[in-house]
Write a structure and sequence with these properties.
The chain has 90 residues and is α+β, with helices and mostly antiparallel strands. It has two helices and six strands; from the N terminus they run ββββββαα.
Length: 90
Amino acid sequence: MNIPEKIRVLHQTYRVSEVDNLHDGADDLYGQVRYLEERILLNSGASDEAKKAALMHETIAEGLVAIRNNRDVLLEIKDLIKEYVKWQFF
């Protein structure tokens, strides 16, 4: 599987890497965002499909958190949707 070295989620770029024994307390994880380190970690022992799903999950979840916490991003998305609708239907 080709995992990107970096991935951009709205205004933030995260380094992506695989690590052994990724867990949170007692639970094994497929993926995890480390906000202060600006990293997305994927469990190296997971299948390729699980890694893909984990990267998608972490990316979408981080994007939703950023949107919820940032009014400017919400307004930008609203403007993009307006432009799309205008272009699509008028």
